[in-house]
Structures are given as C-alpha cells and as structure tokens.
Amino acid sequence: MVLAGLESALLAGSVWALVAAFLLPAIAALVPAAPAALRHAVPRALAAAACALAAVLGGVQLAGSSGALLAWWPGLPSEPFTLAADALSAPFVLLFGLVGAASFAAHAPSGTPAGAAARLALHAGFALCLLCVFLSRHALLFLFCWEGMTLLSAALVAHDLRSARGRTATYVYLALSHRGAAFVAYALVTLASHAGSFQFGALAEAFSRLEPHARESLAWCFTIGFAVKLGLVPAHVWLPLAHPEAPAPVSAMLSGVMVKAGLYGMLRFAWQMPGAPPEQWGTVLLVLGVASALTGALYAAVESDAKKLLACSTIKHAGVLALATGLAALLAANGQREIAGVALAGALYHAIGHGLAKALAFLAVGEAVHAAGTRHLESLGGIARRMPRVSFAALVSTLALCGLPPFSCFAGEWLVFQALILGFSAGAGQLRLLAPFAGAGLALAGALAVAALVKLYGIGFLGRPRTEPAAAAHDAAPRTAAAILAFAALPFAWGVGAPLLAGALAAPLAVLLPGFEAAQLSEHAGFVLVPAGLQSSRIAPAVAALMLGAFAVLARVWLRARRGGAPGLRIAPSWACGAKLDARMQYSSLGFTKPLRLIFEPVLRGERELQVLEEGSPYFARKYRYRSGLPELVEKTLLAPLVQSVLWTSEQVRRLQTGSLHLYLAYLLATVVGLLLWAR
Amino acid sequence: MPAALLVILQTALLVALAPAWNGVVGAIKARLQMRRGLPVLQRYRDLAKLAGKETVLSEDASPLARVTPYLVLGAALAVCTWTPVLTTRPGMGFAGDLVMTVALLAVMRVLLALLALEAGTTFGGMAASRHLALSALAEPALMLSVFTLAIAARSTDLSRISAAVAATPDAWISPSHLLALTAMWIVVVSETGRVPVDNPVTHLELTMIHEGLVLDVSGHHLALLEWAAAIRQMLLLTLVANLFLPWGIAVEPSPLALLVALGAWVGKLAVFAVVVAVTESVTAKMRLFRVPEFLGMAFLLALLALTSDSLLRG
C-alpha cells in the first residue's frame, strides 16, 4: 500500500516536473518581470529532479511492485490516456532517469538568453516525450509521444541554423524517422481497429488472437519501424548525421536512451504483445545485428569527427543489441529457453550499460570539444592536461565503450558470447551455421571499436595540442565537471556489480520468457556471473578488478622496497631525435587509422581526387588540390540509387502536367470511364 | 595441495620464468647463426638494472602515464591467476574465463597504445597505429580459435577446456582442432611481436611495432612494461600448450602428477622456443602491408575451424 502510494507519487512527480520544466521558460519569456532564474536555472533543476525521480521509479519497478497509474481523460471518446511503468519498461525508465539527470545537470546555458531558454525548453520537452514513450499504455498517446520525441529532437539537431551540416542532418533524420513512424502508426492503428480499443492490454489480447499470417505481418511492420530508431543497417545513415549536431547533453540522451526506445518498441510490440516473435525474426535480427555492428565499428574507426565517431560507435552497439535479441528469439523458438534467457539478459544489460557509457562519452567529449571550439580530432590534442576532470570521465567512457572489464559494456557482451557458444552446441541447424559468423563478427567489431576509441582519446586528449584554441582549453565550470565526474561512477558500478544487478532484470525477462529465472545469473552472494542454470563458465568482474588493482599496488611496493624509497621520476621535454618537437610531428587522426583504411579498402572504397591547379615544370606542378573522402557504402550503393529513382519517377510523372485544361479534362474522362469499367 | 597454494605456485611459475623464454630463444638463435650470443639469464639482469633506474616522463604526458605501467602489469598478473599451467583444477577460475582473459589482454593493449601517444612524438603514434590495426585482426582470430575448443567443452572456462581436451586424447587430430591450432599459432606469433610479423631485436624505429610502443618509456616503468610483455607472451604460449596440446597436464594435483606436468609444460615451451628460433633464423620479416593477409589467413582458418566443427559434428 505504502509502496503503491510512493510509486504514484514518483510517477506523477517525474511527469509533471518535466511538463513544468518544458513550459516554464516559455512562460518566463512572456512575462517581462519574471526573474531570470525562471528561464534557465529553475527549469533545469526541475528537469534534473524529474529524471532522478524517474530513475527511482524504474528501480522500484524492477524490485517488483504493483504498478501505479496516471490517467486522464483527453476529451476523446472511449478511454483515458494512461501512463504507467511495468516490468518491461522498467529497465528503460531506469536508464532514462540516470542519463537524463546527468544530462540536465550538465546542461549549461550558452549563447543568447532567449536561445538558451528555448534550448532548455526543447530539451525538457524531448525528455518528457521520451519518458512517456516508455510509460504510455495507450496507442494514440504512444504515437503522439513518439512523434513528439522525433520532432523535438529534430529541432535540437537543427539548433544551429547557420550550419548547413545541421540542416542536412535534420532533413535526413526527419525523412527516415517518419518512414519508420509510418510503419509503426499503420501497425498500431490496424491493431487498434481489431481490438476496438487503444489500451495496450486490449491490443495485446487482440494481437495474440489474430490469425498467424496477419499477426506476423503486423509484427514485421513494427519491427521495420523500430529498426529505424535503433539505427540498424540499412536505416542507420541518419544516426551519424543527427546525433553529433545536437548540443552535447542532448546527444547524450539521443545516443544513450532514444536509440534504446527502438529496442523497447521491438520487444514490446513484436515479442511481448503477440506472445512470441514471428518466424525468422531472430535470423533477420541476428544478421542485421552483425552487419550493423561491423559497419558501425568500421566507420567509427575511420571517422575524424569526435562526436560523429561516438555516433558510429552507437550503431555498433545497436548491432550488438539486435544480435543478442535475435539470438534470444532463435533460441526461444528452438525451445532452449534457458540459453535464450541468457542472451536476452545480455541484451537488456548491454542496453543500459551502453546507454550509461555512451551518455558519459558524449557529455565529456562534448565539454572538451566545446572548450577547444572544434569537433575535429586533427585540431584537438593535449586536452588531458588542460581539462583533467573532464578527461578522466572521457577515459572511463572510452574504456567502457571498448567493452573492457571492469566497465559497463563487458558484462552484457560476455553474456552474449556465452549464449552464442552454448547455443551453438545445443542449437538447431540454422543456428549452428549462423553462430560462428555472429561470433566472428562480434569479435571483429569489438576489435575495430577498440581502435576507434583509442583514436578518440589518444589523438583527441593525449599528446600535444594541435591548434591554439586546443592549447587554450580549460576545465569546464566546476558544477558541470562535478556532474560529469559523478556520472562516471555509474559505468564502473554497472560493470563491477554485474552479477548482482543482472539478477534485477528478472521481472522484464520473465515477461518475455516466462519461467526464466534471472536470479540464477549470479552466485556467491552476487560476486560471480554465470549463464543461468548452466553453470558452465563464470566470471567475477569485481574480483578481477580487485586483483588487477592489488597486483598494481604490489608492483609499486616491490619497486619501493628494492630501492628503499619512492622510485625516481623526472619530467623532461619529449625527445624528437634532436629535432625541435612540433605538434604536427604527432600522428594525425587520419594517419592513425590509415593501416585499417588500407586493410578494409575493398569495403570502404574511399574516394581520392588530385587536381593540378597551377602547372610548373613538366614534372612538378606548383599548386595542387587534394580531396579525399569516405562516402558511406550503404548510402552510396543503396540509398543514393533509391533517391535517384524517386526523382526520376517524379520527373516522368511531371510530363502528365502540361498545363493544358483540355488534357486535364481528358484525364478526368479517362478516369471516370476506367472506374466504370472496373466497377462493372 | 590446497587450491590457494596451487594458484600462487602457477602464477609464480609464469611470472618467474617469463623473461627466461626470450633468453632461451635468443641463445638458440645465436647458435643457429654461429654466434655465442647473450647469456640466457641476461634478461633478468636487464630487468633488475632497469627496475633500479629513474623514469623520465614527457612534460606533455597526462597523469595516466604515471599509473599505466603498473596497471598493465596488474592486468597480466590477474590473468596468470586463472591460467591452467600445471593442473586443470580450477583455483581462481570463478574470477575469469576465456573472454575475460582476451578482454584483459585487450586492456593491456589499449593502455599501451594510449601510453605511446602520451609524449606527442611520431614513433609512438606510428607504433600504436600499427599495433591496433594488426591486433584488430589478430584478436578475433584468437577468440575464434579458442571458441572452437570452448564449443566442444561447452564452457569458456580455461581449466574446463583444458580438461575436456585432455580427456579425449584423439580429438586433437580432428581437422577443426588442427585448423584452430594453426590459427592460434599465427596469432601468438603476431601478438608476441615475432618474425615474420615484427622483429623483437630490431633497432630501426620505422619497422618497430611492439618495441615502438615503449620507445618513450624509460627506467623502472620500462622494467614493468618489459616484464608485463614477457608474461603476456608466456600466457599466450601456455594457452597453446595447455588448451590445444594438454598432454601431461595434471588432472588431479598429486605431487607426482604436478612434477610430470611441470616437465611437460617446460618441455612444450622448449619445443616452442626451438620452433620460433628456427623460424626467425630462416624467414625474413614481412612488409607491413603483407601482414594483414597473414593475419586474415588466421582469421579465416579459425572461422573454417568453427564451421567445419559444425558440419562434421553435425
């Protein structure tokens, strides 16, 4: 009873505080006498508090509770709009809350006061829609929030109107997102017409009663729609364009949380509601997942724009999520529920683990590129000595995104590997054929991601500054830096506490795979992670981390004992073989991954163009222009021809419109005759 | 023998004998080339000398550079605790498995690459760039080749894999096992910086990969990193010896069985040393951009091992 009351309070508090944070800046702007704090400081604190409440709500829900409702009548016939957290949405609400709180705490005003207030209002509105996507229990409300989430985030992507890059990104983002939303909307409305109701409960019942053919086609519609949001190949092209253009705190929510809304949608509408995912769903997701993981990791490795690199890495991790989900579906369809549970636990755990790490990366790297005034790695460098606190957070997120223990992405990927190996041994023919390639793809993508992220931190933050602004960078405002540093503890905790925390996913896992007991994922009082019920292999991230630390200290103690005091350490200028050291002697970002570009040249197919501007002697020209680029392969081979053919078709259709009234009348006549013949 | 003692004994063996292996390879190579060569124990003297020396850090280095050598050594030692050296009885097996081992080796690699970029000089960046590109191919091959064994053992626990392979003495002659072993050997050659991928005794910076990473490091930091590299090499060789060819490993840790296992392990390492020394004496280092083909071959062999496993075992 008390718990239910607490939950309703949390739910109402988080939603209404976000509404207030959304409206306050606008109201304050209209009232001339309003104090300045109402425009930014107060709504920001409100929004951060709302997100913290949402995190608690997600946690309470995971701990298992009744589920409180927030309902109101929109004035439409039939039913009330309902918001509630349930077992499946709980992990996503938790992720939203944690990332949102950090994102608002690090949201510093910049530019004109009006612009800053507008950005904050949009940020709060976007967060509200995102939260309500997870909480909606009503189809129309869900669609409304889904659209709101897309449109408000698109406004934030377009926040710099002078940037042509931002405009292109917004256009591509909106175009692709709306294709996806159209599939979702069609499927939801069709389902609602079958159910005669918009409530999720009724929808689920109607969905499972549909005949198999109709059920599968609807589930596929949902899957296509949500795959766009998740950023799976070939609908991933919007992601590296749009995510970097938004302000850093918003990028953190886009990459950390919004992408996971795609996974949530798939799990809710293509798995939970119909009772089981359609046939071949697992295979398709597995294959798309491997393709996305490889594409994302490869393009991240060759990218020189710091924020774009992070966005590409999001595609890699989205691929891992799809791979794990597809694997779980395949195994569940084969009847191996226990191994399926391990794969699904890996997917959910990785969704949160990656969300935390990626949000931290965007916040920290965002501060650094803001201070240095450029996102280009070729113009950064030396940040680690100038912004030590932010750089520490960036280092933690780098190691976490590399999938290294003891940080957050390792445990989820470990579970996926376990499921792959056990599934291969126990699986049916199809899986036996797919599993080696999935394992190979996952391992290769992981290794490429390591190269990408080492480049991000090594070239961007270490070494000597490559430009004046980078040399003049100084640490972020104390409050922002403190917020980012505090948030850096989460990816570490999520990795070290994996055995304990994976058990907390019991409720959502039981919704999708009834009978799977997630508590079996941990043993020895939550220190050891095992693939549930199978006891075949085990890891203890906390113990491994502790041993690493202990051995490091031991080495230090040994050195001290040998010398009878602290070993000597002298600071001196770097040695450059006698030459005067110049920042341009360092490896550049482009040069750093040149070997990878050469190795993967057949896939990447880079473009080079050398133009002689001014002829000198017959052998040496005086002036050259050199241009090189890596056009996205999917964009070049799949989407560009598609766009071309649409343009060509519209060009042909335009021939019908000559402007002659007689011809139009003839069309009318022809149509009427045609219709009469057809209806006869 | 109690489990804790076994863990300490195996870790100590790996750590203490690690520098010697390079010495042995060097001595055999010197004999093959009609030279006298360095004493086998010279590596220990070098380490002792370096450990007593002052470290010079670049003024451009971040605070990370001060702790990296300790963390790298710590990661190597952590892996040592659960690697089966003499017995398949798991001691610290609950803490780490195959995936954790590969991940901690990756931690070492990432930290070393970052360390190489700290000083802002050219050679560090060059070595880090090459190192990451090559291990981007080598790491998946390593993972896949051991997966072939993991699938047969239905576990990624190193001790269990070793025990499972040891329990079926004829299994090693199967095509998937041999393919995986070949892939694994190529990976070991590449990851330990041996000819034909890299030359461990080179003094030309432009051709260095593994040596180039620590070019800016000196004094006791260098001692820690050199030792960590030797341990890492020992770990990889032990994985080959005890996962792919676990003959003689003690299933039950009785004193006699442990002595036999010690003999078998040292014997296998000696054979590896001869193989490496002969290879290094008769082959030349590859051009850098031929190496990806070599490693790509390992990757394909490992993939082939996995798929042939699925086809043949059916």
Automatic annotation (TrEMBL), chain A:
GO terms for cellular component: plasma membrane. It comes from the Bacteria. It is a multi-pass membrane protein. Its main location: membrane. Pfam families: Proton_antipo_M (PF00361). InterPro entries: ComplexI-like_HydComp, NADH_UbQ_OxRdtase, ND/Mrp_TM. Signal peptide: none annotated. Residues 137-421 form the NADH:quinone oxidoreductase/Mrp antiporter transmembrane domain. The keyword Iron does not apply. Keywords: Cell membrane, Membrane, Oxidoreductase, Transmembrane, Transmembrane helix. It is found in: Cell membrane; Membrane. The chain crosses the membrane at residues 15-38, 45-73, 88-108, 120-144, 183-206, 218-239, 251-271, 283-302, 314-333, 392-417, 437-462, 483-507, 539-559, 661-679. GO terms for molecular function: NADH dehydrogenase (ubiquinone) activity; oxidoreductase activity. One of its GO terms (biological process) is ATP synthesis coupled electron transport. This is NADH:quinone oxidoreductase/Mrp antiporter transmembrane domain-containing protein. It comes from Eiseniibacteriota bacterium.
UniProtKB/TrEMBL annotation, chain B:
It is found in: Membrane. Keywords: Membrane, Transmembrane, Transmembrane helix. It comes from the Bacteria. It is a multi-pass membrane protein. Pfam families: NADHdh. One of its GO terms (cellular component) is plasma membrane. Its main location: membrane. The chain crosses the membrane at residues 98-117, 132-153, 234-250, 256-279, 291-308. PANTHER family: FORMATE HYDROGENLYASE SUBUNIT 4 (PTHR43359), FORMATE HYDROGENLYASE SUBUNIT 4-RELATED (PTHR43359:SF1). This is NADH-quinone oxidoreductase subunit H.
